[in-house]
């Protein structure tokens, strides 16, 4: 198991910060219909997400702030891209709402876990696959907008990835909910007085 450091300035954290800065740049490019440049930004952002994770694990640069910053930037990146694409008419709003609602539910589980003395749940592998699918789907959809000649191929592929990612997103959310319920019940059982105590 890798040690988690308290360092702030690491290469993975710098890459996460770059991704964060690129979010408004991407939205501006998308809003001004500069789809080619928007595609470049979203591809660079997606690549840095994979690179920072590799560097963190390979060179032992896993940090506490990185464990919070990286998934937070991922969520902001996905939400911003979804909203931007929906605003431009490339995605329906129901898909955006579906994905956002799932994350709102996960956020609401945090205080419940904290009340019973638990920290955030570890990221499930399904959640990682869902995030990967969405991070791959979004630039694929932008590709069709940037180059209409390939839209007949890229759009169905992007849609398939987006829907699959949304499905896995909710599946992982159901697993988090089940695990939260299990931990809360276990905490209540542990806190309840035993029969021996009651008999004394």
Could you describe the 3D structure shown?
The protein has 200 residues and is mainly alpha-helical. It has one domain (11-191): Four Helix Bundle (Hemerythrin (Met), subunit A) (Up-down Bundle), CATH 1.20.120.1760. It has 7 helices and no strands. The protein has helices at 11-31, 35-58, 64-87, 93-115, 125-146, 151-191, 195-199. Helix 3 runs parallel beside helix 5. The longest helix is centred in the C-terminal third of the chain and has 41 residues, at 151-191. It is globular and about 70 Å long. It starts with 10 loop residues before the first helix and ends with a helix. The mean pLDDT is 87.
Give the biggest beta sheet.
none
Mean pLDDT: 87
What is the β-strand count? Answer: 0
CATH-level-4 superfamily name: CDP-alcohol phosphotransferase transmembrane (TM) domain
- Our count of helices gives 7
Percent range for helical residues? over 70%
**SSE topology string:** HHHHHHH
CATH architecture: Up-down Bundle
Number of domains: 1
What share of residues are in beta strands? under 5%
Q: What fold name goes in the CATH topology slot?
A: Four Helix Bundle (Hemerythrin (Met), subunit A)
Uncertain segments? none
> Pairing-aware structural class of the strands and helices?
mainly alpha
The CATH class is identified as Mainly Alpha
């Amino acid at each position: 198991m890798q040690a988690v450091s308290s360092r702030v300035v690491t290469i993975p954290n710098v890459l996460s910060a770059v991704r964060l800065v690129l979010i408004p740049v991407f939205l501006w490019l998308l809003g001004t219909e500069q789809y080619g440049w928007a595609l470049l930004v979203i591809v660079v952002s997606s690549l840095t997400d994979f690179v920072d994770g590799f560097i963190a694990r390979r060179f032992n640069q896993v940090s506490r702030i990185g464990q919070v910053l990286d998934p937070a930037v991922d969520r902001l990146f996905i939400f911003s891209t979804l909203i931007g694409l929906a605003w431009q008419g490339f995605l329906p709003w129901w898909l955006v709402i579906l994905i956002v609602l799932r994350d709102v539910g996960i956020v609401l589980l945090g205080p419940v876990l904290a009340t019973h003395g638990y920290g955030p749940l570890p990221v499930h592998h399904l959640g990682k696959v869902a995030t990967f699918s969405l991070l791959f789907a979004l630039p694929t959809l932008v590709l069709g907008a940037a180059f209409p000649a390939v839209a007949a191929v890229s759009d169905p592929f992007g849609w398939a990835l987006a829907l699959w990612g949304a499905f896995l997103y909710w599946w992982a959310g159901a697993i988090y909910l089940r695990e939260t319920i299990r931990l809360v019940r276990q905490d209540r059982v542990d806190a309840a007085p035993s029969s021996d105590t009651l008999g004394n």
